[in-house]
């Protein structure tokens, strides 16, 4: 392994949105030029909360859309390795070996596990969801990534990976780099409903693939100050999703400051503030739309990237697994048994 590596990715559960962009994609776009970058299509992780036949069948189209979104966001196809997690069974082998290096109480302390179960409508945490951080550790360590850009939800998962890597290296020798977490400048983005983070499942998201009219419609319906019944009533800026989005997506800082001042004084209405926000988001999305059009103009590009990336990644994971088994001494166990069996066979075949 020569160049330093980055591992990041998403579950193929639907199109990506602005929350994904600020949470991790912006970092991916920035970092992928500096690192040998692996982008996982985490369909095995998807099974922890979505595992019907219909969910699995939809994963094919969702995977293609996800890769298209990432390329449209600015990741260059010749600087990224996209791969399908379920097509690399050796990741499961590594997961089996790593799961004995972490305890159940430690996994139960990961805050997002119960949240993920609740969001999926599950009363109890499935075994696979409890072990989600261990499989994620296998994902990261199987390509020996040194950098992992993640959103707030996955920060605790990466810390589990760091602990597992250190424990493995202590027990068996230096095999894995201890990956560094790269946090986002904006950890989370509240949804358009103002009640929770932006999420595909909650229907409160603005998608990276949304057209200008859809963005404008969603922004017009955004939650704002509920106590403001008229434009001349002073409004609250703090905690107001409309202004939170202005802070992130409107580069005209002076104009945003002016809008906040006028809003607090009751000198601008919600409609006007939302119209300016819709304009700002559409300006932000316009370059993404242009790149998307170029990606979609080559109908075979995304499938080709996934297949070639999966083949390359599987070769890397096989190499890692050989080193892991050798470091643990597992390879020698079978070799010793085989040598004894061969000696016994030869002895039986030798005339007395």
TrEMBL record:
EC number: 6.1.1.2
Major place of residence: cytoplasm
GO MF term set: ATP binding; tryptophan-tRNA ligase activity
Motif extent ('HIGH' region): 12-20
Domain of life: Bacteria
Residues engaged in binding ATP: 11-13, 19-20, 151-153, 189, 197-201
Gene Ontology CC annotation, any one: cytosol
PROSITE patterns: AA_TRNA_LIGASE_I
Catalytic reaction equation(s): tRNA(Trp) + L-tryptophan + ATP = L-tryptophyl-tRNA(Trp) + AMP + diphosphate + H(+)
Keyword Ligase: yes
Keywords of the record: Aminoacyl-tRNA synthetase, ATP-binding, Cytoplasm, Ligase, Nucleotide-binding, Protein biosynthesis
Residue interval(s) of motif 'KMSKS' region: 197-201
Claim: Membrane is one of the keywords in the record: no
Compartments it resides in: Cytoplasm
Positions of L-tryptophan binding: 139
Pfam families with a match to the protein in the record: tRNA-synt_1b
SUPFAM superfamilies tied to this protein: Nucleotidylyl transferase (SSF52374)
Gene Ontology BP, a term: tryptophanyl-tRNA aminoacylation
UniProt xrefs under NCBIfam families: trpS
Subunit structure: Homodimer.
Function summary: Catalyzes the attachment of tryptophan to tRNA(Trp).
Stored HAMAP family: Trp_tRNA_synth_B
Family per record: Belongs to the class-I aminoacyl-tRNA synthetase family.
Protein name (record): Tryptophan--tRNA ligase
